[in-house]
Design goal:
Length: 231
């Protein structure tokens, strides 16, 4: 029995000891982060690039700043051309063969164009003026002494006649497309005037009354008879 105990003690002493079982073992050292080191020359080049970009940006701003200051933004909602309808109409008298209307609307209706169109494509020369109404809608005025049914349909967008409307003491023919576009047509003193646009009828009536007043103040347009064909 004594020999058996001796062998057991020898085997226990030779058994390896697990490191986790030991209480006095020191922990493994933590891995330290490695800080990158930028050479002085590379750091100098990086700083020079940033400084160069800043300088270029400042130079660009300084170059364009005077241009911006010399062209301030308009204080109005948009560009409104200053059109003198009466002056343009006076210049168009000789080529038109009649005195184009120049409605007096004060500051309520703002004209944005006034021109004479030779009518090369349609064969109908016209006097044209565009107006921006007080309610920010649009009405276009077209006047001619050579109106024909086809041309009239084109001007009114094939809108059917829906009635008459009195404006300026004259009965205007009212045409409505049913899609927000309408026209008022008047044959008076030798010419045909068409007002077309998206404005409300009350604004149409105001402009139409001013057109009649201008028509009545101008000479009556007379169309010379065509020469009789030779036999």
């Amino acid at each position: 029995m004594g020999d058996y105990r001796g062998v057991s003690e020898t085997q226990d002493q030779s058994a390896p000891t697990s490191p986790a079982a030991g209480h006095g073992s020191s922990p493994a050292p933590a891995t330290q982060a490695v800080k990158p080191v930028i050479p002085a020359a590379a750091a100098k080049r990086a700083n020079a690039s940033v400084i160069g970009m800043i300088v270029a940006l400042v130079v660009s701003i300084a170059a364009f700043l005077p241009i911006v200051l010399m062209n301030p933004s308009p204080k109005t909602d948009g560009y409104r051309p200053n059109i003198d309808v009466s002056a343009v109409a006076t210049h168009a008298v000789d080529v038109a063969g009649f005195t184009p209307v120049a409605p007096e609307t004060g500051d309520t209706f703002k004209p944005n164009y006034a021109r004479w169109e030779a009518g090369t494509g349609t064969g109908v020369p016209t006097w044209e003026v565009g107006y921006l109404t007080p309610k920010e809608a649009f009405i276009g005025l077209v006047q001619t002494r050579k109106a024909n049914p086809t041309w009239l349909l084109q001007q009114t967008k094939n809108a059917p006649v829906t009635g008459n409307r009195n404006a300026g003491g004259q009965e205007w023919e009212l045409r409505d497309t049913g899609k927000g576009e309408r026209s008022m047509v008047l044959n008076h003193r030798g010419t045909t005037v068409v007002l077309s646009g998206s404005a409300q009828l009350d604004e149409f009536s105001v402009l139409a009354a001013a057109v009649v007043k201008s028509l009545d103040s101008n000479p009556v347009v007379t169309v010379s008879p065509s020469p009789s064909p030779k036999p």
